[in-house]
Design a protein that fits this description.
Length: 422
């Protein structure tokens, strides 16, 4: 009788479907979010309930200092608001620092390293940012009632291997940018984590873009960089999750070969759109959920081997960006209704998926198909031939350094400062 009972138990376990609890665990805080639009107090609260404890926010230099500080005071108000709201929700902010202001360089995508004036201005801006938001920062002394969650992680530039974000991608110039950043930030906060800005893993056009592996090797060849960074970031935008593994493996091998086996990798952007094409990054409503699940499972199974310290999903909701798939990249719709990917996300974070209403699948699919059809002709042409990444701006917009307003999340006012389009 006992044997029959044990056999029945074993059979039940074998036939039972795999649950989220059976998955290999990810460390607390491993999964974060990289929103593409300003975040309100309500949304930070939702993020916390969804098990999110880290959010990646942009620090646009040109928005803080549109004019030289010799003539105008820096405007930190937008980041102040978001850091405040994040702290109130118990969420720590990491920043990606980018966008040269017009008084420093002709275009926002020009790395500020070609003249002594540019290099000094870059160092001063980073120093003042760290002195404001770091552990001894003035922001925290001015906001003593907030939970103390200083910014300790600084990602230096964004997708610097693409002409979208660097006019002429050059690992030697980037190495100069990195040395200045690492030296400055470590002096202000010796415990800060300085990350090489997230590479776009496999650009569609090489040249003028540079592959992530080639760019990383170029940074090492530039010399004298290892003391100045604490991690390497990657944006593995791929057609399916399996391709992410190859990109991480290649970068890890390069780092190991240069004596950086202990230096971690960070996936600071990762995502797919829920639209039904026409680009390779738009995989449909269920496809988005499936790729999210597969990518997190891949990270869970290999994070120790690759030494990956975290992954930030792009993005929170379906608005704010101008990239090829930004309009459907969110876990939530513009109405803040949950897509299937939201439920998979919360299975991995241990969050409460029931905190937002479920989007009607039939309506969601119809809207995505309509959206895809409307942009199909122009997007197909870009994706098949001229596009360089899923987040490429047009040449005209890039040359003109097109800007969009970034509203304060704390009020309905619109900042006079602007941030680059994605």
């Amino acid at each position: 009788m006992r044997r029959i009972f044990l056999l029945a138990v074993v059979a039940t376990l074998v036939l039972a479907p795999a649950s989220a609890s059976a998955r290999p665990p990810l460390p607390p805080g491993f999964i974060g979010i990289s929103p593409q639009s300003p975040v309100s107090a309500r949304e930070f609260s939702l993020m916390a309930e969804a098990g999110i404890s880290s959010v990646r926010l942009p620090l646009f230099w040109n928005a803080v200092e549109p004019k030289s500080p010799s003539y105008a005071k820096p405007n930190w108000s937008n980041l102040d608001d978001e850091v405040s709201l994040a702290a109130e929700a118990g969420i720590r902010v990491m920043v990606v620092v980018t966008a040269s202001p017009p008084w420093v360089a002709p275009e926002t995508i020009d790395l500020p390293v070609r003249t002594g004036f540019q290099r000094q201005a870059w160092a001063r801006f980073l120093r003042e940012a760290a002195q404001r938001y770091g552990p001894l920062g003035s922001f925290w002394s001015e906001h003593t009632k907030l939970p103390f969650l200083p910014i300790r992680t600084w990602e230096i530039w964004n997708e610097e291997n693409l002409v979208t974000w660097a006019r002429e991608p050059n690992p030697t110039e980037y190495a100069t940018l990195l040395r200045i950043a690492g030296r400055t930030l470590h002096r202000v906060d010796s415990g800060s984590q300085v990350l090489i800005g997230g590479f776009f893993g496999q650009p569609l056009q090489i040249p003028p873009n540079v592959g992530s592996d080639t760019f990383l090797r170029g940074i090492y060849r530039a010399g004298n960089v290892k003391p100045y960074f604490d991690g390497v970031a990657l944006h593995p935008y791929v057609a399916n999750a399996d391709g992410m593994g190859h990109q991480l493996t290649v970068l890890r091998r390069i780092m190991n070969a240069h004596g950086d086996r202990a230096t971690p990798l960070y996936v600071t952007e990762l995502g797919w759109g829920s639209a039904a094409g026409p680009t390779r990054w738009e995989v449909g409503v269920q496809g988005q959920a499936n790729e999210l699940n597969r990518s997190f499972a891949l990270l869970s199974a290999n994070r120790v081997r690759w030494n990956v310290r975290g992954a930030w999903w792009f993005s929170w909701s379906d608005e704010g960006g101008t990239c090829l798939f930004c309009g459907s990249a969110g876990l939530l719709t513009t109405k803040r209704e949950a897509k299937p990917s939201w439920y998979r996300f919360n299975e991995w974070t241990g969050g409460d998926a029931a905190i937002v209403p479920r989007a009607r699948l039939s309506t969601l699919q119809a809207e995505e198909e309509e959206r895809s059809s409307a942009k199909s002709s122009s997007t197909k042409k870009r994706a098949a031939g001229s596009s360089r990444s899923p987040k490429t701006r047009s040449a005209t917009a890039r040359t003109a350094a097109a800007l969009v307003n970034r509203s304060s999340p704390a009020s309905s006012r619109t900042s006079s400062s602007s941030s680059p389009t994605r």
